[in-house]
Every structure is written in C-alpha cells, then in structure tokens.
Design a protein that fits this description.
alpha/beta, five-stranded parallel sheet, about 325 residues, elongated, binds flavin-adenine dinucleotide, single chain
C-alpha cells in the first residue's frame, strides 16, 4: 500500500464489543481536514475496515489484537504503522486508553505530544494543535518543531466529518512485539449498564445538575429533562459529593470533559473547576436562582429562577412539541 505525502495516522479505539468507539468519526473528520487519513485499528473483528471506511478512511491498517496484555501491543502496532506510513501527524482519542498509548508512544519515539486537543489545522510548517485551557478561558495553539506530533483529541470536540469511502483499502499490519513489559489482563468483566441514555463522554447533549437540586430524589428532575432531550446526565462535584449521583457523572477538572452541542446546567454555580469540563460546549443553557452565578457569564441562554418551577415547565413544553 502506498501512502500519501500528507498522511495522518489515526488510531481508532475499539470497544470490547468489537465495534469502533464513537470517537472514530471525529478523529477521521479532523484527520481529513489536514491531510489524508490512514486508520490503524488493533482488532480481530472482520468488520472494522469497512466501518472505518464508512467514517472516511481511504486506507486502513489492521493489527491483530493481543487480548492478554494492556497497551503495549497497541503501542507496538502504532510504532509499526508510523514506520510504514511516515505520517505528518498521529491522532489518537483522548480516552483513558488513548492517552496511555499516546504517552508511551511519544516517549518511545521521542515525539512531541499535544494532549486534549479540541481542533487541528495545518500551516506551512505542519499540523497545529488547538487547545482550550484554564477552564476554556484561553485558547492555545501548539506545534512541535520536529517529527510528526502525537495528538490526543478530546472526545466530542470535532464537528467535521470525513466523506464515506465505499471500498477502503484494508491491509493487515505486521507487528513485531517489542517485548516491553506490559500489565497482563487476567479477565474482563463487562459492567452491565442498564441506562438507555447516551454515555456522558462524547454525548451530543448533556443535562447536568448541581447542589441546587438538594437531594438524590430531586435529582430525578435532571434525568427527566435529559430523557426528554435524549441527553446524557452529568453533575457538579458538589452533587457527587452530596451523594446524589455516582462519581462517574462528574463533569469538570477532576471529572469528565465534555464538548456537546448542548449543555444544560441546572442549579450549578459555575465554579472554574466545573467550567473546565464543559466550557467548549457549543450552546450552554443555565437555570439558576442566583442571577449573579458565574455560570451565566458563559451561558448562551439563561433563566434566573427556581429550577423546580422552571424545569417542569420546560419538560412540559418539550413534550408538547413532541406530541
Ligand atoms: P454550588 O456552588 O453550591 O452551587 C449551587 C448553585 O445552585 C448555586 O449557584 C445556587 O444559586 C443554585 N441553586 C440552589 N437552589 C436552586 C434552585 N432551587 N433553583 C435554581 N438554582 C438553585 N467541581 C466540579 O463540578 N467538577 C470538578 O471536576 C471539580 N473539580 C475540583 C477540583 C478541585 C481541586 C477543587 C478544589 C474543586 C473542584 N470542584 C469541581 C468543586 C468546585 O470548586 C465547586 O465547589 C463545585 O463545582 C460546586 O458545585 P455546584 O455548582 O453544584 O454547587
């Protein structure tokens, strides 16, 4: 397989079910905006090549999965793919697995690493990474001065999508194991998720609740609004600390970073640590009884009022539109 001079190598995460992770579409969209995507997938599933093509990868390299070792086999595959493709940049999801691979690969290959990027572009010297930092208060552009940058892309941050490729060229990648020490996987227990709601990370819409909800029982109002909107449910740390919801719901500096099209903040004051995880949302709606709450500084739409009065009316209005 010959690779274009402007190739962008894109490592796509694979879910335990064998499907490509949701982040794949944004990664390939970002790659196509700055060059020619070459997807790398570490998987034994037959369908992944066609799936990557449908998301815009004209070339796909598939490396066999090594199911009893963590991370190192993926880094080995990435090293083999980078040697073959000689890309202008390497894009990886900013997922837990992606960050692990990116850090190890960058250290191993002495590449520059740009982490948690919300966009990419190209200038005369190469690929530029765009970061949103300090809770979204500053935008920072970063580029590396040697070699291909390794870039981890925040899930949900990229809107661009690449055109589907009907018959991508799919090749099996030969990977020589590096023999580097790896944690071994004894067993995987799938946690049964009973929720029909979208996953918080990478969701297109998020409704979050804060301490203003007052109790675990009343937090159900957040879930009701989320369900009417088809949104994921998030929370502030104060709501998590108060036990209204599990920690996995926390949005912010020490929780999940989200970049949805719509973020609705209910009874959340808008502390800097909360904003750090949601300020890149496209449209922010805040409902808070305190008109001076900092969340209104970044909200596109705000309602100053008691959420227990406003939200039921909002739900009723949305349901009436659906009917
Ligand atoms: P509060 O600040 O108490 O705000 C509650 C809001 O609800 C108020 O604005 C109030 O006016 C409003 N309200 C109350 N009743 C109603 C009502 N009936 N109707 C409408 N509005 C009402 N926080 C995070 O969220 N995520 C993080 O990842 C995070 N990481 C942190 C890391 C560090 C190192 C530190 C020090 C802090 C971190 N925090 C984080 C905590 C953060 O500083 C805030 O304490 C937290 O975000 C506050 O949550 P809150 O807005 O729900 O609560």
């Amino acid at each position: 397989m010959a690779f274009a001079d402007d190739s962008i190598l894109v490592l796509l995460d694979v879910m335990p079910s064998g499907e490509l992770a949701k982040s794949a579409a944004g990664l390939l969209g970002a790659a196509a905006s700055v060059g020619t995507p070459v997807a790398l997938i570490v998987s034994d599933a037959d369908s992944v090549g066609a799936a990557a093509g449908a998301l815009g990868a004209p070339s796909v390299l598939v490396a066999p999965a090594v199911s009893d070792q963590l991370t190192v086999p993926v880094v080995d595959a990435l090293a083999a793919a980078a040697d073959l493709v000689r890309p202008d940049a390497i894009l990886i999801s900013n997922s837990v697995e992606g960050r692990d691979v990116a850090g190890r690969y960058a250290a191993r290959s002495r590449s520059g690493l740009c982490a948690d990027v919300v966009g990419v572009s190209r200038d005369a010297e190469g690929v530029v990474a765009h970061h949103s930092v300090y809770g979204g208060a500053y935008n920072v552009d970063a580029s590396v001065t040697w070699g291909a940058p390794v870039i981890t892309v925040r899930q949900g941050a990229i809107e661009a999508r690449a055109d589907a490729v009907e018959s991508p060229s799919v090749e099996t990648l030969t990977v020589a194991p590096s023999g580097k020490r790896a944690a071994s996987i004894d067993k995987i227990d799938a946690a049964v998720v009973t929720s029909s709601r979208p996953e918080l990370r990478g969701a297109g819409k998020v409704v979050s609740g804060g301490r203003g909800l007052g109790s675990q029982e009343k937090f159900a109002l957040v879930e009701q609004l989320a369900d009417v909107l088809g949104a994921a449910v998030g929370a502030s740390r104060a709501a998590v600390d108060a036990g209204y919801v599990p920690q996995s719901y926390q949005v912010g500096q020490t929780g999940v970073s989200v970049s949805p099209q719509l973020y609705v903040a209910l009874g959340i004051s808008g502390a800097i640590q909360h904003k750090a995880g949601m300020q890149t949302a496209k449209t922010i709606v805040a409902i808070n009884k305190d008109g001076d709450a900092p969340i209104f500084e970044i909200a596109d739409f705000g309602v100053v009022g008691d959420l227990f009065t406003v939200v039921p009316q909002l739900i009723a209005a949305l349901e009436a539109r659906k009917a």
